[in-house]
Amino acid sequence: xxxxxxxxNNELEEIKDTPKAxxxxxxxxxxxxxxxxxxxxxxxxxAFLLYIEPFLFVGESARDKVLTLGRAFIxxxxxPLVSILLLKGLNLIKSIKLQDRKDxxxxxxxxxxxxxxxxxxxxxxxxAPRFLIxxxxxxFIASSIGLLANTYLKISMHGIALGTATTYLCLLAINPIxxxxxxxxxFALLITGLLGSARLxxxxxxxxxxxxxxxxxxxxxxxxxxxx
Length: 228
Fold this sequence. Notes:
Elements: E1 2-6, E2 12-16, H1 23-35, H2 41-52, H3 62-89, H4 105-123, H5 130-149, H6 157-173, H7 182-201, H8 207-227
Helix pairs in contact: 1-7, 2-3, 3-4, 4-5, 5-6, 5-8, 6-7, 6-8
C-alpha cells in the first residue's frame, strides 16, 4: 500500500505504507536491545572467558577473576555510560539513545579512549593471556572503524559489538587448546540474527547499517589477531 503526499516543494511524492509491528514484538525487541546493548557485550564475553571457558585463565584465583571482570565492567560499561549521561546533561547530544548520527561522534571518541586504555593496561601485564589482549584490541579497533564509518552512515553499534563478539568466538572455536564451544557459538549467531531483526523492527537502522556494523566487528578481530 502507498499514498501520495505533497512535499514542502509542492511536489507529489509516493510514500509506501509499512505495516506496524505488534506491540508485543516491539516490547520484546526493545528488551533484547537493552540486554545486548554494546556497553554490555564485552563484559559478557570476558565473563564467558573467566567462568564458562576458563582455558585462558588456568590457575587464576577467584579474586583475580573478579578483579579482571571488575576492570572490564568499569571500562566497557560504567565509564561509557557515565560519559554519555554527562554529554546529555551538558546538552552536547540530543538523546542518550544516540539516534542521530552526529550525536554518535563524541561518544565514539570517548569510548575509544576507555577501550584503548584497558587494552594498553592489559597488554602490559606479564601474565595476561594473549587472547584477552586480542579481544581488548579488537574492541578498540572496531570502535575506531565505527567512528570512521559514522561519517558516511549511521553504523549500528549493536552490530559492531555483536560482530566483534561472534567473530571472536569463532577465533576461539578454532583454537586447539579450547574446549568445544560450538553450542555457545551457535547461541551467539542466534542472538546476532535476533538482534538484527529487533533493530530493524524498531526502525533504529537500515539493513546496510547493521550489516556494516557486523563487518566492522569481523574486520577488527581479524586485524587484532594478526597484529597481537
